[in-house]
Amino acid sequence: MSTSRSLATAARVLRQLRHDRRSIALMVLVPCVMLFLLRYVFDGSPGTFDAIGASLLGIFPLITMFLVTSIATLRERTSGTLERLLAMPLAKGDLIAGYALAFGLVAVVQSLLATGLALWVLGLDVVGSPWLLLLVALLDALLGTALGLFVSAFAASEFQAVQFMPTVIFPQLLLCGLFTPRDTMQPVLEAVSGVLPMSYAVDAMNEVLHHTDATGTFLRDVLVVAGCAVLVLVLGAATLRRRTD
């Protein structure tokens, strides 16, 4: 891998995103809008937003980054751009790293806006540090980016890329502990939830929600989410195809 080539790829992707206002709106504004709606949907149920808002602060960015990244990468391949880039002295790892850097920068902006909105506008009540909350939100967005880059290699069209969402995201959403504690699930489902990265993302948010300082469980959860993101990026580089047949 070459740092200069990865940075050049990231710069190119950011230039393209700058002219794609709909994608920018989807990545940056949609999580904020969803949190805003969620806050007032539960306006008549005191404490409900505080109970689930932190978890969804991580889940919404993950989902939006997954969608945008998977479609954007697929578009590069179907248009022939990816094939032309890989014909140059550009390794797959350079390309994936460049995309991860570009979308990671967007994820930083997204996480800052969503966390600031939740804490200081919508009044999300957490015991822990806002910086810990921001860290988890950012890692979740980066995980969504990594998953999007990975699944784009297996889709032949944008429609197929969207279809991966029920396959990759929905099972994690149902089993992550958002709707019911994982230890009350049927044993097989509890075991499956234990290997899904979103479960650790939700657990980390709950640790920030209830503890003043970073606990051992929080550190474990953060390391698992970060490790999964790195692992999926490596797999994405290994499975990246030059074009869609």
Automatic annotation (TrEMBL):
GO molecular function terms listed in the Swiss-Prot or TrEMBL record: ABC-type transporter activity
Membrane association type: Multi-pass membrane protein
Transmembrane segments: 24-42, 54-74, 95-119, 131-154, 161-180, 222-240
Record has NADP as a keyword: no
Domain annotation ABC transmembrane type-2: ranges: 18-243
Keyword match Cell membrane: yes
Keywords of this entry: Antibiotic resistance, Cell membrane, Membrane, Transmembrane, Transmembrane helix, Transport
UniProt cross-references to InterPro entries, sorted A to Z: ABC-2_transporter_component, ABC2_TM, ABC2_TM_bact-type, ABC_2_transport
GO cellular component: ATP-binding cassette (ABC) transporter complex
GO biological process terms on file: response to antibiotic
Record-stated family: Belongs to the ABC-2 integral membrane protein family.
Name of protein: Transport permease protein
Species whose genome carries this gene: Streptomyces genisteinicus
